[in-house]
Design brief:
Order of helices and strands: HHHH
Shape: rod-shaped
Strand content: under 5%
Oligomer: single chain
Number of strands: 0
Radius of gyration: 25 Å
């Protein structure tokens, strides 16, 4: 019983540490790579002038 309990505790700590590491890595990547958001609005002005010559 004691051996199993120790094993499960070690597994729980391992999973918890991996989860924290992944969440920290995700937040770090999100902090490092913010340019994709401002890059999205740029294609919209190129689409608006095209209907004017057609009309």
């Amino acid at each position: 019983m004691n051996r199993y309990n120790r094993k499960s505790t070690r597994l729980l700590i391992w999973v918890l540490s991996i989860t924290i590491a992944v969440s920290m890595a995700c937040s770090f990547v999100a902090y490092l790579v913010p340019p994709p958001a401002p890059a999205a609005p740029t294609p919209t002005p190129t689409l608006s002038p095209t209907p004017q010559p057609d009309a």
